[in-house]
Amino acid sequence: MSDNESKPLTELLAEASITLDASATGRDDAIRQAGAGLLAVGAIDAGYIDAMIDRENSVSTFMGEGVAIPHGTLAAKDSVKSDALSMVKFPDGVDWDGNDVRIAFGIAAKGNGHIALLSQLATVLMDPEKAEALRDATTVEQVYALLESEDE
């Protein structure tokens, strides 16, 4: 068991990495904002953000329920300094290759840590009520409460 799996989502998501009232001109702008949240806490170097866009150009990270989970390519692993999440909420939505995205979770993880993070996040997002509550969250506390329930 890697140490990534034991880390709760709430520990990986710093308050400095949460923006609840953002707007974006489009998909790449939204990805840059999610990347900026990871950069703000020192989890990545700036090159990782370009890798997040590279990944999106080859495989969409749109998950459904108005949520996308942009993350970098394997080639960008060296740009990751520590595991972290960022969350950017777009109340007016972003056109994400034809999908309406309201929340982008940026993921930075060393090794294969992003797989554990993706599965933890997917568990929250597969519950339509939780996904809706996240889309409607207006405080950092609400975000943490919704993610904490998965940490139990």
Walk me through the structure.
The protein is an alpha/beta fold. The chain has one domain: Mannitol-specific EII, Chain A, CATH 3.40.930.10. Helices cover 43% and strands 23% of the residues. It has a five-stranded mixed beta sheet. Helix 3 (27-40) packs antiparallel against helix 4. The longest helix has 14 residues, at 27-40.
Distance between the termini: 17 Å
Q: What's the tally of helices?
A: 7
CATH class: Alpha Beta
Number of domains: 1
Instruction: Kindly report the average pLDDT value.
Output: 90
Topology-level CATH name: Mannitol-specific EII, Chain A
User: The biggest beta sheet, please?
Assistant: 5 strands, mixed
> Numbering strands along the chain, what is their spatial order in the largest sheet?
1-4-5-3-2
Structural class, by secondary structure, is: alpha/beta
In terms of DSSP E residues, the strand content is 15-25%
> What percentage of residues falls in helices of 4 or more residues?
40-55%
Query: So what's the overall shape?
Result: globular
Report the radius of gyration as a whole number of Å.
14 Å
Identify low-pLDDT runs. Answer: 1-5
CATH superfamily: Mannitol-specific EII, Chain A
Strand and helix order: HHEHHEEEEHHH
The CATH level-2 architecture is identified as: 3-Layer(aba) Sandwich
Number of strands: 5
